[in-house]
Amino acid sequence: MVYFNLYFLKRRARKWWPYLAILLLLIIGYYEGVFHQFSSSSVLDSVDDQSRSTMKEVFALQRQVRLLRSVLKSYSIPEREYSDVLLPTIYVITPTYARPVQKAELTRLKTVFLHVPALHWIVVEDASQNSQLVSNFLKSSGLTYTHLHQPTPDEWKLKDSDPNWRKPRGVLQRNAGIKWLRRKFMQESNPRGVVYFADDDNTYSIELFQEMRHTQTVSVWPVGLVGDVMVERPQVSVHPKGEGHQVTGWLTGWKPNRPFATDMAGFAVNLALLLKKSKAEFSLSSQRGFLESDFLGNLVKLNNLEPKAELCTMVYVWHTRTEKANMKHEERLRRAGKPTDEGIEV
Q: Mean pLDDT in the chain?
């Protein structure tokens, strides 16, 4: 039997609660397996002394489980965190910028992310400093997060009259997220995790994150409502050597012969692979439509891609984009000294 000193645990729980959590999972697994073996009344009637001794140990372990849970709870460690310590973390990098719909966009993402275990949200503002609005939002989000900022030079910013494709967007912000990951894991040779670039104007399903969780290289899937078609998707065929399936090309409406004709929302990268490839980052000088191709070209070849979402036949992310808010009357009221958002955060 293993006994724990409650005083010792309380003093050290903050430092090594992940180890307690792993032990907790092992104890629960052992307890559930053994208890199931002796759960029926017919079995209980026929158990020998050795089995009865085992059952006593099970009940003692159950008490230890309750003890561990109480220690973790006393330090306000959410159960979601210690129940998912064995899962690879998904690091979601989201560029964002100030605009009337910004908080609404981030709220939509938060609502989904709260249902995804072992997720770390890296939000990077296109600004010279972190805004109070986003800071307050993240503090109350209930998510594990990192809040960064990285301004885009004026010459690389879109003007109001420019189409979305005129200049690459979110480039420096995504790179800031990658640099943060490189600093965080600089001492680790093979960290476990997945990196996903989630723009704040898309729509994501929970299933998408289940698909990408165990990415070994770069995983890919379809993206709905993008590129002036219903769906852009990888084309998948049986591997010539009979070893599963592989991506052979892309079904898109615009330049399907691009090396990686995918949208930013259509792939995730293994964390260790990204950190090993020091040249893997996004470039402001990428040709229009080749931002993703240039990035992925520094990581993998086409036959290294992992087709997800039932061999790329399911859509779990949509390039929806929120309609730009019409502020005509707001501007009129502000000129009259009557802003509608005075004293309230929208």
A: 85
